[in-house]
Every structure is written in structure tokens, then in C-alpha cells.
Design goal:
Helices cover about 45% and strands about 25% of the residues. It is α/β, with parallel strands linked by helices. It has one domain: STAS domain (Transcription Regulator spoIIAA, 2-Layer Sandwich), CATH 3.30.750.24. A hairpin with a 2-residue loop joins strand 1 and strand 2. Helix 1 runs parallel beside helix 2. The longest helix has 16 residues. The C terminus is likely disordered. Belongs to the anti-sigma-factor antagonist family.
Length: about 130
């Protein structure tokens, strides 16, 4: 039996210069998490601060996938930036809720909703000590 029965597909688009929309398709597990992590690290390296993770085509995610999401969440917070999960499949949403990840990382129903949350985040950051002030 081949380990790569369910290869991961990751498509990155940039709705804004500092926002990466990462659409993931396939199982997000111990066999595919490293590939997912590489895509996120590449976007961090290129100056993206906000990550919209479209998990609508991920039928299964294990702790490896959750750990990567939590790691990029922490890295984004340090920038400061944000991470948003978009439209997770029902089984994935259940895992996110049971583990409490959905409390830490906001879950949105659409890209538009997640972008509105990015705007709200930017508004909150603008009220603090901003280097652009």
C-alpha cells in the first residue's frame, strides 16, 4: 500500500500584497504536513503577514496539520499578522473544535469574511504603536 495515496495539492494566490490565500486539497496528515509547512514558510519568507487557509477540500487532518497551523499562527502573531481558516470540511471543523484550535485561530465561512477580519486586525494594529504612524 502506497503512502502517497492521497497527495496534497496546495495552491497559493495573493488577494493582497501581504495576504496569502492558501487552498489545500487532500489529506493534511503526517505524510503531507511537511509540504504544507514549506508553502507557509515560503510565504512568510516573501513578507506575507496574513494567511487565509482554505481547508474546504481537506477531508481529514491529524495533529501534524494542526501543529503546522498553530506554528504559523504563532509566527504570524510575532510579525504582527494573522491566520484564518476558511470553510473547513465538517470532519476537520469537528477536530478544530474538539481540540480548541478554532478558539485560537478564527474560522471564517468565506474568503471575503476572512479578509474583513484581516481589515479589522489591521485597524486594531493601527491604533497601537505602529511603525507607520
Amino acid at each position: 500500500m502506497s503512502i502517497a495515496q492521497n497527495p496534497l495539492s496546495v495552491e497559493v494566490t495573493l488577494p493582497r500584497e501581504d495576504v496569502a490565500l492558501i487552498a489545500v486539497e487532500g489529506y493534511l496528515d503526517v505524510d503531507t504536513a511537511t509540504e504544507f509547512q514549506h508553502h507557509l514558510a515560503n510565504q512568510l519568507h516573501h513578507g506575507r503577514r496574513h494567511f487565509l487557509l482554505d481547508l474546504s477540500s481537506v477531508p481529514f487532518m491529524d495533529s501534524s496539520g494542526m501543529n503546522i497551523i498553530l506554528r504559523v499562527y504563532q509566527q504570524a502573531r510575532d510579525i504582527p499578522g494573522s491566520v484564518h481558516i476558511i470553510s473547513p470540511a465538517p470532519a476537520v471543523l469537528r477536530i478544530l473544535e474538539l481540540t480548541g484550535v478554532s478558539i485560537t485561530v478564527p474560522v471564517s465561512g468565506s474568503v471575503e469574511e476572512a479578509l474583513a477580519r484581516v481589515d479589522a486586525f489591521e485597524g486594531e494594529q493601527g491604533g497601537q504603536d505602529s511603525p507607520q504612524a
